[in-house]
Amino acid sequence: MRDQLRVLRHGLAVQWRMWRGLHTWRTWTFAWLSRLLVQACFYALVGRMLGSQEQVDYLLIGNLVAIMAIDATVVILLAVGERQAGTLALMVAAPATHLTAYLGKGLVHLGSGVAASTIAFLTLPPLFGVALPWPWAGFVPVMIFLVGVSCYCYGTCVAAFVLRFPSARWVALNLSYLVIMTFSGVNVPTSFWPGWVHALTSVLPMTHGLAAIRTFIAGGPLPGVLGNLGWELAVGAAWFTVAALAFDRMVRHGRRDGTIEFAG
Hints:
The chain is an all-alpha fold. Helix content is about 75%, strand content about 0%.
């Protein structure tokens, strides 16, 4: 466990330095964060055009939480980037599981997503007349973090499969978070979809966590909120398990046929 935590810490430190080379507080605020805020505002304005404050509330809350998923799934690009840089074999040789090495390097983007989503949650609702149950609304960022962890596990799982098809990384990234935004209750209720699609949404990250946040903001029963959060964590754990198995299979296959350093 000590080696796992040490590798996780060092992976986070390395990625933090790389992230600082890409962003300053100005570029993150005025380029990345502003873009995400405008996206959330766009959907809220759709609700306003429909002439329904209820629609404004629904669309804005959903897209405030979805902001986090965009950053959390960037782990797909990071994993493929290691293979293209020729450092995959070095990461596999780390004194911990290879999954730990990948998880550590992506945590910066998870933190960025949770920060962006929290800032949006604190700034945008008053602009669109969305009532929040203060001071209890201060617990919402904690729920956003839990949803973010689930989405991060989902992104890691996708990355494990995309490693064998590096050229598909951008398609995989865009499809990954668009599937969440489409089917997890961000813009339309999950009950909108046919029965079999509705059943599949229960295994997607954000579905249960977003439902918990909506229930909490609406003043719903606490057991329902905690139950949905529990399901969200269970879904994240399931995606993490599949990711661990997929990474292990990819590494064993790469060692066997010599393709672990392939960067195509």
